[in-house]
């Protein structure tokens, strides 16, 4: 980031949440870069920027789409770059219909399932006359049709692109054909104008011009612009598309793969990147291989083909090798060519099994046991009330943490105990609190936000009963295997055949280096048997090599823990290749082939990074080339060979099946090939662009504890007239488990507050530093009012929009140093269909002066407002509002205003509507999601 | 208490030490002069990484007699250049907080208080419950007879704060057991 000429921070308060990383923004500023912060609030980041542009939360696609329109309409894009490296010239199927044609929907929408058939989004027939793509929709052997995104599969393409059969779509290099991506893009964003930005985001023309000019004048051969975002983009319904919009813009401006370019994802936990790469996530296996889905991956070949076909371009063509190496690492000698390397040992998904689907299953008594490994969902997840109620349905839980977090104590204290809704004596959940070792008490690696794997040395022994997760999991595995050792049940074979023989030290602790060595991989046979692999390109698909996470291969090259390297920064260049190790291949800037032009020459001397050395016949420069090292820029690629050999010399995007950066995504996303503006679920502003009000693919859960505000529907929009966003402060960390127990940090930020503008304070009669009560359709909380001009009321669609800021680190309890109400109790569960991540950034509420009621009266207040607003289970959950797609008549819904029938109405089923096998229709014709089966 | 000496009078020390303004060494007490930074007294320094956000700042963990005494930023780190934010700088309290719980605590079904439990017993009880939940909610096939080979009786949440090696073992063990409901903060 220090090399950027302009940095646009949007969806992040980097100075507050990533303060030490922010030094590189300040470094860029000191070198002359322009810094712009787009955010609803004026924050510490804004204070350090040249300009703060206040915006309405959830409208990012309008702003970024208008920038796309601006650069396309005025020919301000980087023409040589987009022609060389993007799919601008690719021709899309003539069956494709845009949101401009269909009132806000793309072609292929099925209102019955609430999902898209993506066939019509594909590239036009390839040169061989074959259909290209069609990868994200699968037809099972029995003819069942299944869209991968519903198992969260789009995330499996996080390290690259989804497959295309061949990387040879038809192209029109003049970009004039109306079906080219370029022309589709132009039409799609033609109504995203500066006026629309003013009308929708509340951003003035002058501010828009400043932003557009900053971007344009700091892009091109000589200059680069960098974007940075955090959960201000991801935690939205449609969040994946917010990021996509920035990606399109950066590709158009030539800001990918070059120094000071790109999009910086600022992640919030020490190894949240590592836990995605080596995923404790339901839909992934290590290295972004998908979990197996029934009907989609019925045999090993179908599975690996769905990841990448061997005949396609780029490195996903070797997907079979990556999968075989993983299976070999896990099941050793039991994984053979004859049994498809024990592919059948992998369990199958048949729909999403994300944390919110699991919660619904808990409420339905479908889950017995729950492990919490350093996470506090009672405070940190959306709809904290439902989280706690869900835990009361468990038979047992294991809480591994440093202190008595609220997810361990909810049965004894908390809002539901206060209200009498739960009684301690009635709760049957058995709880094991196991003390955990902290980061100084064990050795191991974290992967930080730029994919850098950094090893920590152990400083001291853990105290008392405290154990590392490594020790706990190894021990649990040993006990389970011991208890099953005489089993003849085939279901136990995967556990008994598991490679689980890690070396231990004298105190019985597993050597973590042995685990990272397994992740790295080794030769299983041949002259080098037993030696570590140095690169994933050495992986074979015949079982002669193994490796637990292909993208990490090289971290243990030569038997040396490369992640533990600590050569001081003062003794190496700015890439610091000898400080730790970055996946893949210790490469620090991804797609860096694009830092040189089509001929392999740097775009400019000033922005030089990698180039083709015609004498040495190799790619040269200070970073590790992200390209076959000896592939000439004019190499046409051997398309018959498939894989890396098929890449042409300018196919800089080596993980994409066509080698190009995707302005338009023919596969991989479930809610559209191009980002489109939809209003947030509870928004009271009509979508100014389309009759389709909100994202039609969103995942929702109809439940009496998860009601939505009416938004634009209904007649009582005045009950929840404001919106709030949640955020972090520097002195605390997420749900507070690692900060509210520390005296220093608790003293610095002792209590929950809400930020409101002086105008809003006056409107509702709140005094500065007085108490305020915030009420959403889910819960009521109290906070100290911080009345500040940092909050700007915006005029949007002729209405004044007041936004409220709420940090979410506190919770009710007696164990931490400080306590307070839990903000996530206010938030409902509405998820992005691509990522299954909830919206936390735009939630409807009202705010009143004074403290909230105590005890039972607290929830009564919430229910009183629900009745005033006329909320029903389906309020705000109307999926399709585009008139050409009538959703059917709405049957009588449950009327919350008739007191005595409420309980009866909700009694069956007890808590929620359990969805059918895959997303389907409920009685009233609305899309629902629930567990996988009844 | 050292013997009184006129040479230790502040004004004498001020002249003697050249501390003209009397705001430096002349006014430091013996008590202050005897103090040393904890980093000097440490008998071991471990290279570590901050456990909070994903910037990955370098930490130096100083310890003495097997106890962490101080945590400082690592000036060698090309990421953080020695800096830490308030959380990273406070992380010594994460280790030594008096509110930290270091023994197993157990709440029996319908119990009203925490109880003590031996670690070994707890681990064995958990393994039994794991197998029982796995069995009770086992799904061999779906309603169309297609293989699922999984259990929905067990779920886990967490991973973004623990190590890569720990995530790896968790995913490996749970997947082999058929427990597919694994999630972490990356979903939130």
From TrEMBL, chain B:
<dbReference type="Pfam" id="PF04879">
    <property type="entry name" value="Molybdop_Fe4S4"/>
</dbReference>
<protein>
    <submittedName>
        <fullName>Dehydrogenase</fullName>
    </submittedName>
</protein>
<keyword id="KW-0411">Iron-sulfur</keyword>
<keyword id="KW-0408">Iron</keyword>
<feature type="domain" description="4Fe-4S Mo/W bis-MGD-type">
    <location>
        <begin position="43"/>
        <end position="99"/>
    </location>
</feature>
<dbReference type="GO" id="GO:0030151">
    <property type="term" value="F:molybdenum ion binding"/>
</dbReference>
<keyword id="KW-0479">Metal-binding</keyword>
<dbReference type="GO" id="GO:0009055">
    <property type="term" value="F:electron transfer activity"/>
</dbReference>
<comment type="similarity">
    <text>Belongs to the prokaryotic molybdopterin-containing oxidoreductase family.</text>
</comment>
<dbReference type="InterPro" id="IPR006963">
    <property type="entry name" value="Mopterin_OxRdtase_4Fe-4S_dom"/>
</dbReference>
<keyword id="KW-0004">4Fe-4S</keyword>
<dbReference type="GO" id="GO:0016491">
    <property type="term" value="F:oxidoreductase activity"/>
</dbReference>
<dbReference type="GO" id="GO:0009061">
    <property type="term" value="P:anaerobic respiration"/>
</dbReference>
<keyword id="KW-0560">Oxidoreductase</keyword>
<dbReference type="GO" id="GO:0030313">
    <property type="term" value="C:cell envelope"/>
</dbReference>
<dbReference type="GO" id="GO:0051539">
    <property type="term" value="F:4 iron, 4 sulfur cluster binding"/>
</dbReference>
């Amino acid at each position: 980031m220090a090399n950027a000429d302009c940095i646009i921070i949007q969806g992040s308060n980097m100075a507050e949440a990533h303060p030490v990383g922010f030094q590189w923004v300040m470094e860029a500023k000191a070198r002359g870069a322009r810094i712009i912060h787009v955010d609803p609030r004026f924050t510490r980041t804004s204070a350090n920027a040249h300009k703060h542009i206040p915006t309405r939360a959830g409208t990012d696609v309008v702003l970024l789409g208008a920038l796309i329109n601006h650069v396309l309409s005025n020919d301000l894009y980087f023409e040589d770059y987009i022609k060389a490296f993007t799919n601008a010239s690719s021709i899309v199927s003539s069956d494709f219909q845009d949101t401009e044609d269909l009132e806000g929907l793309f072609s292929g929408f099925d209102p019955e399932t609430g999902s898209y058939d993506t066939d019509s989004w594909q590239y036009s027939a390839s040169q061989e006359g074959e259909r290209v793509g069609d990868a994200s929709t699968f037809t099972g052997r029995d003819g069942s049709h299944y869209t991968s995104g519903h198992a969260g599969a789009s995330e499996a393409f996080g390290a690259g692109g989804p497959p295309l059969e061949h990387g040879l779509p038809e192209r029109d290099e003049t970009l004039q054909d109306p079906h080219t991506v370029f022309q589709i893009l132009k039409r799609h964003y033609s109504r995203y104008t500066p006026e629309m930005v003013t009308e929708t985001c509340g951003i003035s023309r002058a501010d828009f011009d400043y932003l557009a000019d900053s971007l344009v004048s700091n892009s091109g051969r000589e200059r680069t612009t960098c974007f940075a975002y955090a959960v201000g983009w991801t935690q939205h319904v449609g969040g994946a598309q917010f990021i996509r919009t920035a990606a399109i813009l950066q590709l158009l401006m030539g800001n990918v793969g070059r120094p000071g370019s790109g999009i910086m994802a600022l992640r919030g936990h020490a190894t949240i990147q590592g836990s995605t790469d080596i995923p404790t996530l339901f839909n992934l296996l290590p290295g972004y291989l998908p979990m197996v889905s029934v009907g989609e991956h019925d045999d090993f070949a179908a599975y690996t083909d769905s990841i990448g076909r061997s005949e396609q371009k780029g490195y996903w063509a070797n997907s079979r090798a990556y999968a075989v190496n993983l299976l070999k690492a896990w099941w050793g000698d039991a994984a053979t060519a004859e049994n498809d390397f024990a592919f059948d040992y992998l369990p199958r998904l048949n729909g999403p099994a994300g944390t919110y689907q699991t919660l619904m299953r808990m409420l339905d008594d479908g889950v017995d046991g729950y492990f919490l490994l350093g996470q506090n969902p009672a405070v940190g997840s959306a709809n904290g009330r439902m989280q706690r109620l869900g835990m009361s349905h468990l038979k047992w839980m294991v809480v591994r943490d440093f202190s008595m977090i609220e997810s361990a104590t909810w049965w004894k204290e908390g809002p539901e105990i206060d209200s009498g809704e739960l009684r301690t004596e009635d709760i049957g959940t058995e709880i094991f609190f196991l003390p955990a070792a902290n980061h100084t008490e064990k050795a191991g690696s974290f992967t930080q936000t730029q994919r850098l794997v950094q090893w920590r040395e152990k400083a001291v022994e853990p105290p008392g009963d405290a154990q590392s997760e490594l020790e706990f999991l190894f021990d649990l595995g040993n006990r389970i295997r011991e208890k099953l050792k005489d089993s003849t049940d085939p279901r136990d074979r995967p556990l008994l055949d598991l490679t689980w023989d890690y070396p231990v030290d004298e105190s019985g602790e597993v050597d973590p280096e042995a685990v990272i060595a397994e992740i790295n991989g080794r030769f299983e046979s041949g002259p080098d048997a037993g030696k570590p692999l140095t690169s994933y390109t050495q992986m074979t698909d015949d079982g002669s090599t193994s490796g637990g996470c292909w993208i990490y291969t090289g971290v243990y090259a030569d038997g040396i823990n490369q992640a533990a390297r600590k050569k001081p920064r003062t003794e190496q260049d700015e890439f610091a290749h000898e400080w730790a190790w970055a996946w893949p291949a210790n490469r620090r800037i991804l797609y860096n082939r694009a830092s040189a032009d089509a001929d392999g020459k740097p775009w400019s001397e000033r922005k030089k990074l990698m180039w083709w050395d015609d004498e040495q016949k190799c790619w040269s420069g200070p970073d590790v080339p992200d390209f076959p090292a000896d592939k000439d820029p004019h190499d046409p690629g051997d398309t018959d060979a498939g894989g890396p050999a098929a890449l042409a010399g300018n196919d800089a995007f080596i993980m994409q099946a066509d080698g190009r950066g995707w302005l338009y995504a023919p596969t991989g996303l479930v809610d559209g090939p191009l980002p489109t503006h939809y209003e947030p679920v509870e928004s009271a502003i009509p979508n100014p662009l389309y009759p389709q009000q909100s994202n039609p693919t969103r995942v929702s859960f109809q439940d009496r504890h998860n009601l939505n505000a009416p938004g634009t529907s209904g007649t009582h929009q005045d009950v929840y007239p404001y919106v709030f966003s949640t955020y972090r402060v520097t002195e605390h960390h997420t749900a507070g488990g690692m900060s509210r127990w520390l005296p220093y940090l608790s003293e610095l930020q002792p209590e929950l507050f809400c930020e409101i503008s002086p105008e809003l304070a006056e409107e509702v009669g709140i005094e500065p530093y007085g108490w305020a009560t915030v009420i959403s359709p889910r819960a009521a909380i109290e906070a100290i009012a911080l009345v500040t001009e940092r909050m700007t009321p915006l005029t949007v669609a002729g209405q004044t929009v007041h936004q409220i800021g709420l940090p979410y680190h506190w919770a009710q309890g007696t164990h931490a140093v400080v306590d307070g109400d839990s903000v996530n109790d206010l938030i409902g569960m509405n998820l992005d269909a691509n990522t299954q991540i909830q919206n936390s950034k735009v939630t409807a509420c009202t705010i009143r002066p004074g403290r909230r009621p105590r005890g039972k009266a607290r929830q009564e207040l919430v229910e009183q407002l629900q009745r005033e607003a006329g909320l029903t289970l389906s309020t705000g959950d109307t999926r399709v509002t585009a008139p050409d797609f009538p959703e059917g008549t709405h049957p009588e819904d449950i009327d919350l205003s008739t007191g005595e029938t409420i309980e009866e109405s909700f009694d069956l089923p007890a808590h929620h509507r359990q969805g059918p096998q895959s997303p389907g229709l409920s009685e009233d014709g609305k899309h629902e999601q629930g567990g996988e089966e009844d | 208490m050292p013997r009184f000496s006129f040479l230790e009078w502040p004004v004498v020390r001020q002249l003697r030490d050249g501390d003209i303004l009397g705001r430096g060494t002349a006014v430091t007490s013996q008590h202050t002069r005897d103090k040393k930074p904890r980093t000097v007294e440490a008998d071991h320094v471990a290279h570590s990484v901050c456990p909070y956000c994903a910037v990955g700042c370098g930490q130096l963990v100083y310890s003495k007699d097997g106890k962490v005494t101080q945590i400082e930023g690592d000036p060698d780190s090309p990421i953080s250049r020695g800096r830490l934010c308030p959380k990273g700088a406070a992380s010594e309290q994460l280790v030594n907080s008096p509110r930290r719980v270091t023994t197993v605590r157990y709440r029996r079904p319908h119990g009203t208080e925490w109880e003590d439990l031996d670690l070994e017993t707890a681990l064995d009880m958990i393994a039994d419950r794991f197998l029982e939940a796995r069995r009770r909610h086992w799904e061999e096939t779906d309603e169309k007879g297609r293989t699922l080979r999984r259990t929905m009786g067990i779920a886990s949440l967490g991973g973004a704060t623990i190590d890569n090696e720990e995530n790896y073992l968790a995913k490996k063990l749970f997947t082999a057991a058929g427990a597919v409901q694994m999630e972490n903060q990356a979903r939130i």
